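ARCHIVE CARD
CATEGORY: sequence design from structure
SOURCE FIELD: tokenized fold
FIELD CONTENT:
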């Protein structure tokens, strides 16, 4: 067991060494695409609300519009600046989308459109999720300062 752990640790170290660190201001392409997608989602939420669109025939409350617009807007800004925590946050959103689309595909889809919509969302969310993992490795988690007095 110890030998297997040592081999895995060696493979992980070799993989880390093959990764090229990001240059100042550089973003992995998938993070750029994700930032643009999040920005477009945030803008579309606000634009549709301002245009008076009434989903299910009712006007949504302000909080129902502001929360997702704010979340996607903050994620877009963070990913545009290649912030590790924004990428992790986007992956959390992707996990929810993967589960929701799988649920929709397995239990709710009752038409070809429903199957195609849920299946398409599942594929796109899953591909984004997998591609973001390698991008996260290049971005690296920011270093924390030691607590005062622990010097």
């Amino acid at each position: 067991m110890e030998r297997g752990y040592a081999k895995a640790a060696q493979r992980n170290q070799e993989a880390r060494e093959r990764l090229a660190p990001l240059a100042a201001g550089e973003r992995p392409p998938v993070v750029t695409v994700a930032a643009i997608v999040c920005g477009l989602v945030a803008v579309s939420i606000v634009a549709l609300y301002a245009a008076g669109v009434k989903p299910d025939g009712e006007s949504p409350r302000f909080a129902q519009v502001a929360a997702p617009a704010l979340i996607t807007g903050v994620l877009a800004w963070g990913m545009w600046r290649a912030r590790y925590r924004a990428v992790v946050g986007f992956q959390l959103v992707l996990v929810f989308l993967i589960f929701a689309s799988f649920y929709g595909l397995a239990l709710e889809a009752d038409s070809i459109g429903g199957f195609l919509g849920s299946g398409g969302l599942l594929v796109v969310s899953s591909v984004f999720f997998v591609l973001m993992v390698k991008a996260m490795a290049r971005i690296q988690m920011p270093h924390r300062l030691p607590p005062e007095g622990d010097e």
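CARD ANNOTATION: The chain has one domain: 28-139. Residues 28-139 form one domain.
SHELF: design records, drawer C
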